[in-house]
Design goal:
Elements: E1 5-8, H1 11-14, H2 32-40, H3 56-62, H4 65-71, E2 92-94, E3 101-104, E4 108-109, E5 117-118, E6 127-132, E7 139-144
Parallel strand pairs: 1-7
Antiparallel strand pairs: 2-3, 4-5, 6-7
Length: 148
Amino acid sequence: MFPGIIYLSVAVLAFAGCNEPEKSPESIITSPMNTEQTSVNPYYSRTDTTKLNVSDEEWKRVLPDSIYQIARRQGTERAFTGKYWDFEGLGSYYCAACGNALFRSDSKFASSCGWPSFYEALRPNSVKYHEDNAYGMQRIEVVCGRCD
C-alpha cells in the first residue's frame, strides 16, 4: 500500500487482552488492565463496533496515564518489553482504549522488531492506516478503526 515500514500504535496491543476464542464470555481470562478500564471507561466494549468521537479531554479522564500516553499521544513502549511482543498463545488482540477487536493471534508474525506484528486485521474496519513521515522516515502507522 505505502512504501516503507509499517508500525503499530503500540498501546493498541501492549495492554490488550489475548483470549482463547473457544471460551464463553463468562470464562474469558482478562488482564487486570482491561478489568480496571471497564470499571472507569464507559467506551470500552469488546462487542460494540460503533465509531467513537470522544474528545481528548474525555480520553484523558477515563484512561490510565500509561494507556493515554500511547493510545492518544503517539507514545510507545520500548522494543522487546511489552507483555505481548513475543506472546504465542491463541486468541484475539483488542484496543486498550476502546476494546475494539483488532487482530487474531494467527495473523501474527515474527518481525524481530520488538513489537507485535500482524499481516491482517480481524475485520476490514478494525484498523486504519496513516502515512507518517516523522523523524525523516517513511512509515505507516496503524491505529484502531473505532477510536483512532
